[in-house]
Design a protein that fits this description.
By secondary structure, the protein is mostly helical. It has one domain. The structure holds zinc ion. The site of zinc ion (ZN) has 6 residues, from α1 and α3.
């Protein structure tokens, strides 16, 4: 199964970058909308968002306000491995 990106849609690589900002709550409304459109059409990216959300709520439970940058870096390289090795 494949999906197509329109000219204004973010690519999976751009979505990865957006996701790290999304985790920090730093996305604009436009970015959030294009992100969610992409996630609807791209199950792998949706899975990764869930991974991010899980990690973020673990941080909340540990009373951390923000995801530590080390954890974000590890998540990001995990995402990159998962998407681009295929
Ligand atoms: Zn994608």
């Amino acid at each position: 199964m494949s999906h197509q990106h329109g000219p204004s849609e973010p690519t999976c690589r751009q979505v990865l970058e957006l996701l790290s900002d999304f985790v920090d709550g730093e996305l604009s409304l436009d970015e959030r909308e294009s992100l969610s459109r992409h996630l609807d059409a791209c199950p792998p990216c949706e899975e990764f968002l869930k991974t991010f959300e899980t990690a973020r709520s673990l941080c909340r439970e540990s009373l951390l306000e923000k995801m530590p940058s080390e954890l974000k870096d590890r998540l990001r390289s995990f995402l990159r491995d998962q998407i681009f090795k295929k």
